[in-house]
Design goal:
alpha+beta; Lipocalin; ten-stranded antiparallel β-barrel; eight-stranded mixed beta sheet; 9 helices; 20 strands; 34% strand
Length: 476
Amino acid sequence: MVSISTEAKVGLFVLVALIILGYMSFRVGQYGFGLKKGYTVEAVFDNVAGLNRDADVMIAGVTVGKVESIGLREGRALVTLRIEPNVRLEKDVIASIKTHGILGDKYIEIIPGTKGEAWLEQGGEIDRVQRQADMDKLLLELGNIANDVMSVTASLKKVLGGEEGEANLQRIISNTRDLTENLNNLVKQNDEKFHIMVSSFTKASEGMEKTFASLSEITGKINKGEGTFGKLVNDESVFEHLDKTVASLNEITAKINEGKGSIGKLVNDEETVDTLNASLKSIDRGMEGINNFVSKADQFRTFLSYRGEYLFDSGDGKGYLELKLQPKEDKFYILGVVADPRGKRKTIESTTGGVTTVTNEWDRSQILFNAEIGKRFRDVVLRGGLLESTGGVGIDYFAFDDRLKLTFEAFDFDRDRDPHLKAYGEYRLLKHVYLSAGWDNFMRGGDDSSPFVGLGIRFEDEDLKYLLSSAPLPTQ
């Protein structure tokens, strides 16, 4: 009789399991199980960057559906939404892409339409969508503004620069000086006329005399340089200050033309303009870096889950606590601990009278650990690493928008005994609640083999943020 080695048995079993899983994949993909509920509608967006399949569809903060698929239609993003059967959408609803907080997941927000309008039917399309804020367009607008600033600067250079601009500015200053001199002469002439008028009407009447006396007193104060008007008429320093002001303006204009100072460099120095352009380009690159950082932070997700299993044959319970870190949509890491009432199997060899005896014992004091790395290929996930403190591999198949997961695991390979094989299915009953059922260690048989049922809970990033922020702080 031909004996088959343990490695051959394991290889044959894995091959049979893969064939069964492939057949189930074909059957599920071809026929499905009819678990999808509700109806689908479509919406077309210009850009859906960051929106993932199975993202929430919400109305007024309440989840009413999921994103079923994302594709392309004539260069635009075609998003298919599955809406719950008890939710009806008017034909004039508005769909937009929103984000939970600053770095949260993106979701579809639907703004209800007009009451009394017709309803969207299966396969209907939402015609009204709102665009997302596009950082590239904002940067383009900033570039246009920079171009306008450069145009204004060039125009100012043309007006004030060169001999013609200097001549125009000199004419303005000369006209201002002539106007000041004419005003001074006019004031002096009026001062003499006031004296003549006062002398002519002195004898007219006592009342008029008092009036003109007052006017003469005012005029006298003006002549003495008292008051604002008197200083303007008689104080030569006022005109000296004005001349100095005009001279300073000439000096400033000359410095600008010579390219001195900040304004002069801005008007005449081409290097300053190039520096300004380089600064704007640096701002552009900085904004691009911020966009890349936010995009990577958007992809990183964290999951915390616990699953308990009841083993029918032994009547014991088995628990799993796992932390899943997912830096990319198709790559993840799992760290966890396993509480197994049987503990970890140990192989003990003893020799008596030249006869070696091999016995298996359970170390119930040890806690088992999981440390795995996984990669997803469409609906199939391959993972491997440390399973229950031994080397092993696993394969998962997802169906029905990831609500159903079929799993096969193989670990604890040893020459003296069959490997530990486990197969089970897991179904998402609610958003955070999962039901599971399967057979643990079905290859070995005996007390170690048992069918089981399980219940699990799982929390994602937003749930963990809410739980941590709402947890009470300890007080003294």
